[in-house]
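Sorry to interrupt, but I need a hand with the structure work. Can you supply me with one protein entry, sequence and fold together? No commentary is needed, just the two lines. Leave the record below and I will have a look.
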Amino acid sequence: MKRILIFFSITLLCATCSELDKFEGVPIRQYAHEVIDFSSQYSSTSWAATKALGEENVYPNHEDNTNAWASYTTDGQREFIVLGFETPQTVHTIEIYETYNPGAIDTVFIRNESTGEWRKVYSKPARTDLPLESRIFAIYFQETTFLADAIRLALNSPAVPGWNEIDAVAIGGQRKK
């Protein structure tokens, strides 16, 4: 009897909690709209941080391409890029278009639009075992209850040899009605 009571109590608690966290908005998927900050870029025109904005234009090709963001050096230091989005939204999916030497991304944060606080949504060691081909690095997690307006990608560039190029970044979730 105790087991049944505990089961129903946990079920009721979970159902109640999920209703409290539910955000009622309009589905949205958008690409990064602005560069907020970056550790380095190869130049201000070719392989510039701004090349990570908007829709993918290198993917699905795996190549060293001036239309993707690349750091100033191949493996000199850890790197990062901070990108902003035009419409604040909840987030449950992040898609990062890695088009050259993928796998260096080891940490991803999203920024709460109203508080400015960063929330870590992904953290794993850099992948050194990936094939040399482009990929859409998709990260899925429980949808945020806050609206996000920016993303920060941290790369362990020394762990994955060669330039680690990013073509585009998109997020999926909901915007306000």
